[in-house]
Design goal:
This protein has 384 residues and is an alpha/beta fold. The chain is 47% helix and 15% strand. The protein is built from 16 helices and twelve strands. The strands form two sheets. It has a seven-stranded parallel β-sheet with strand order 4-3-2-1-5-6-7, with helices on both faces. A five-stranded mixed β-sheet has the order 11-10-8-9-12, with helices on one face. It is globular and about 55 Å long. The mean pLDDT is 97. It binds nicotinamide-adenine-dinucleotide and magnesium ion. Nicotinamide-adenine-dinucleotide binds next to helix 1, helix 6 and helix 9.
């Protein structure tokens, strides 16, 4: 029985992880989980699963759960997530938090020698080097949940790292893949949240439309698979059937295919290296008929190019880019800025930032705090 601690249980990945666990109760036991403010979702999970540790963001919500379940240890507040990660009994941490907040719990779990299944790509973008070092120091495994990275991990099975020629990451193109840059000026939040191929949390859906998501994924792939940026290619693939590929030195390309359903990469990360039956829709290639691949236009999607540049330079810059994007993405969700302001703010912050190497978590916290403050001030200027 594998014991699982799930962070971000109320989110899109979190809820699908609960589904995977419920379908394999002979394999997995959920021993703890966290939600942010959605205490109703926490109560729903507790109806069906017996859990020992729960985190909610606010003290009042924590009190509600404590009252209803006196044998559950409930955590809340700023330090609470770390306390949960430290106190719970588990073999695998599933990190389905969104954003920078996912970093410290990941590092904490690794320091406690726990394996991690990671949906929270921001962790690797802001602290790839530190996370990699911690994994080696603590002999811990990191299993990607992001579908592209799960696909690559699957295509790498049984092959040698030195025989990789390149990674080919597929991109759906996001909500605005058929709009010109000119047409992006007036798009609304509601337009942005209509992803053509699937439903996800708000932040990643917006990141998919700006193509920041694919940029974050390039950096994530660089750290996960130890491949140079020159050997990571992104191709536009509208059908989202091929989830990514690996090309080898003999020109053989391995691809992983399936219908777009995150329960497959989640289940693969939870069960690695085993595969188990799943209740998703199987892929019917005859019905799909044709698959299309197109070159990515870096002028149309400048944030993808920026991610390559920032990834190559390294140091604090990926963290700066990530923090600027989180602040701008959030401001767009609150209606404070226009869609194209997201991109402009991220570029401005990266240009303004002073390059610094990263040697500790403090360096990362400092870069993140600086950029959030900088971007918030820029947003105030926009709103004046
Ligand atoms: P979501 O917004 O649906 O859920 C995020 C979860 O994080 C929620 O449970 C929320 O309560 C929690 N959370 C957010 N801020 C918090 C805070 N300050 N303290 C405590 N909890 C907090 O997000 P999602 O779409 O499930 O994405 C989660 C991660 O997985 C992201 O990094 C995303 O890029 C990645 N990812 C998502 C998908 C997808 O299909 N949704 C696919 C690939 C990768
Ligand atoms: Mg992805």
């Amino acid at each position: 029985m594998k014991k699982i601690l799930l962070l971000g249980a109320s989110g899109s990945i979190g809820q699908q992880t609960i589904d995977v666990i419920k379908n394999h109760l002979d394999q997995y036991e959920l021993t703890g989980f966290s939600v942010g403010k959605q205490v109703d979702k926490a109560l729903m999970i507790l109806k069906d699963l017996k859990v020992a540790h729960v985190y909610v963001k606010d003290a009042e919500d924590a009190a509600k759960i404590s009252e209803a379940y006196q044998d559950i240890k409930v955590y809340h507040g700023q330090e609470g997530l770390d306390e949960l990660v430290e106190a719970a009994d588990y073999d695998l941490l599933v990190n389905a938090l969104v954003g920078f907040v996912g970093l410290q719990p990941t590092l904490k779990a690794i320091s406690l020698n726990k394996d991690v299944a990671l949906a929270n790509k921001e962790t690797l973008v802001v602290a790839g080097e530190l996370v990699k070092k911690a994994l080696v120091d603590h002999h811990v495994n990191l299993f990607p949940i992001d579908s592209e990275h799960s696909a690559i991990a699957q295509c790498l099975q049984g092959n040698k790292h030195e025989e990789i020629k390149k990674l080919i990451i597929t991109a759906s193109g996001g909500s605005f893949r058929d709009k010109s840059r000119d047409q992006l000026k007036d798009v609304t939040l509601a337009d942005t949240l209509k992803h053509p191929n699937w439903s996800m949390g708000a932040k990643i859906t917006i990141d998919s439309a700006t193509m920041m998501n694919k940029g974050l994924e390039v950096i994530e792939a660089h750290y996960l698979f130890d491949v140079d940026y020159d050997d990571i290619e992104v191709v536009l693939h509208r059908e989202s059937i091929v989830h990514s590929m690996v090309e080898y030195v003999d020109n053989s390309i391995m691809a992983q295919l399936g219908n777009a359903d995150m329960r497959l990469p989640i289940q693969y990360a939870l069960g690695f290296p085993r595969r188990y039956p799943i209740n998703t829709e199987p892929l019917d290639l005859v019905k799909v008929g044709t698959l299309h691949f197109e070159k990515m236009d870096m002028e149309r999607f400048p944030l993808l190019k920026l991610a390559y540049d920032v990834g190559r330079k390294g140091g604090n810059l990926p963290c700066i880019m990530n923090g600027a994007n989180e602040e701008a993405n959030f401001a767009f969700q609150k209606g404070q800025i226009a869609f194209l302001d997201i991109e402009a703010l991220v570029f401005k912050a990266v240009e303004k930032a002073k390059f610094k190497p990263i040697t500790s978590i403090e360096d990362i916290l400092e870069a993140d705090a600086w950029v959030r403050n900088y971007v918030r001030k820029q947003i105030e200027v926009i709103n004046k």
